[in-house]
TrEMBL record:
Species of the source: Octodon degus
PANTHER family, A to Z: F-BOX AND LEUCINE-RICH REPEAT PROTEIN 18, F-BOX/TPR REPEAT PROTEIN POF3
Keywords linked to the UniProt accession: Ubl conjugation pathway
Name of the molecule in the record: F-box/LRR-repeat protein 18 isoform X2
Domain F-box per the UniProt entry, residue ranges: 34-81
Biased composition (Polar residues): 1-10
InterPro entries: F-box-like_dom_sf (IPR036047), F-box_dom (IPR001810), FBXL18_LRR (IPR045627), LRR_dom_sf (IPR032675)
Any one GO biological process: SCF-dependent proteasomal ubiquitin-dependent protein catabolic process
Organism ancestry: Eukaryota, Metazoa, Chordata, Craniata, Vertebrata
A single Gene Ontology CC term: SCF ubiquitin ligase complex
Amino acid sequence: MEDTTLSPEQEMSKVDTESPDTEAADTAAEVAGGAHLLGFSDEILLHILSHVPSTDLVVNVRHVCRKLAALSLDKSLVHSVLLQKDYQASEDKVKQLVRVIGREIQQLSMAGCYWLSGATIEHVARCRGLVKVNLSGCHLTSLRLSKVLSALQQLRSLAIDVSPGFDASQLSSECRATLSRVRELKQTLFTPSYGVVPCCASLQKLLLYFEILDRTREGAVLSGQLMVGQSNVPHYQNLRVFYARLAPGYINQEVVRLYLAVLSDRTPENLHAFLISVPGSFAESGATKNLLESMARNVALDALQLPKSWLNGSSLLQHMKFNNPFYFSFSRCTLSGGHLIQRVINGGKDLRSLASLNLSGCVHCLSPDSLLRKAEDDIDSSILETLVASCCNLRHLNLSAAHHHSSEGLGRHLCHLLARLRHLRSLSLPVCSVADSAPLADRVPAQPAMHAVPRGFGKKVRIGVQTCPGPFAGHQPSSAFWSLLKNLPFLEHLELIGSNFSSAMPRNEPAIRNSLPPCSRAQNVGDSEVAAVSQLAFLRHLTLAQLPGILTGSGLVSIGLQCQQLQSLSLANLGMMGKVVYMPALSDMLKHCRRLRDLSFQAERPALNVVIFPLLHEGLTDVIRDVPMVHLDEITLFKSRVAEEPPNLWW
């Protein structure tokens, strides 16, 4: 392939010849003076341009004038290129991007660019200085992958898909030489295969995503025996991080056992993170038992996540050694509060290094050792107090999918204790845990916010008199939940999910057909508590699921007005079952969410007809003009994502 990539100096001279109006643009800028955009300093302009898609910088901005041409090709802007979710990046734009700045790109993410052809992906080979590249979700055959990697001699980090038809024997010697230097590999498997793992002799971080279907399109049953005869000697001696996430299905468990069998023979001495995420049950085998015993003897971990069937009833945690742990996940485990304090926190040991803790579905983790606890029983606040004191630097905490009811008493409410975790950036809580102990009848009903519901034939509005309530009008800033969010002003990700909520078809969990009614205490959480979220000025991701106490939805309007950084919104089963009375409020909210990129919605089928279609016609008409991507998904996106993976696991 002929390399026609131009240097920045050549591109600058080309701008002069291609842009006859360059001098006129410069003159106009000088006339406008400091009031013109170009009157800003280079540092400010570079910061502004950093928010412009790379394809726009190369295709459009650099042709405006000499100054913007120089700034658009600045190394700080072309060093890292993100094309993921850039749906306006056509094949011609991507080819031009590579031709102009290919030599300067060191990090490139084309994850999920399914609309680009394999021939366009091949142009990545011209970016010879690439150190990190993500090609997950791209159309790549074994031969094309070989051609691309053969040219990337500086590559150290790679993400690819392994699809049916992949053949490692088609990889050239130059490609294998590149893979031998790769230190980080993210591999998504759609077919039983070792992929390129056996070629990566210097692996330090291995991330495996198993998405293999049990049957082919023709109906044939797949088996891990298809891997027999493939090279099965992965190089794990330098491995520091091993992560495997499995989609439901027996074949995924069968294939991951083959990967783990190599680890069980010789556990890497430098292993410090071992994480396996499995939906449902995953029985231990002789090889996995040997692996865990070897890890307990030979390594000190910093991050741990194991299938619940490996931990339930096991004394494994007593024997594991931890160095400076930063991530623990015990999702769905029968871990009692006593075991949490004794085995994990080691009786109140200082765990300031712990940044992320996932206790989702651990129904007994905040209660004493008795497993006879009922859902309506209160938590033991002393356990939570010990947890908060020991893990004072937590940034990500997940307590969802459990009933965590607080007892009466000053300072003993779960929200008051969590308010001490001032470093939190993401938090997931069950709805019933934020409810105050006061019964529903004693609460003052929330007043609707502006335009939340029709005014009807009430008293006419006098012109010139302020009648619009403020964002907190009619709500209760004295509640425990208000106090919690007031003390966590920098929270970016918040989830309030009913303890009995289950998605119709969750992404990586077994489907649950028999849904349970909401917790009785969740009835006490309504519009007032939702309005409390509007205190979070830096909020980017919000999930609200199974809140039966929602009446008018006035709190949603407050969030739309105050949370201007909101990018992702997921709503499920708000209000009473089968009743949708908050559509006007939701419509008003979305008109204010100018940065919203992802919108997810789930409700019963009648509610979908009442809400979604009118919303598409009226509520989102103005929003879609400014929102790059609005995604309506009925069933797949409702799962707690807080602390689901270790922070900074992958670029």
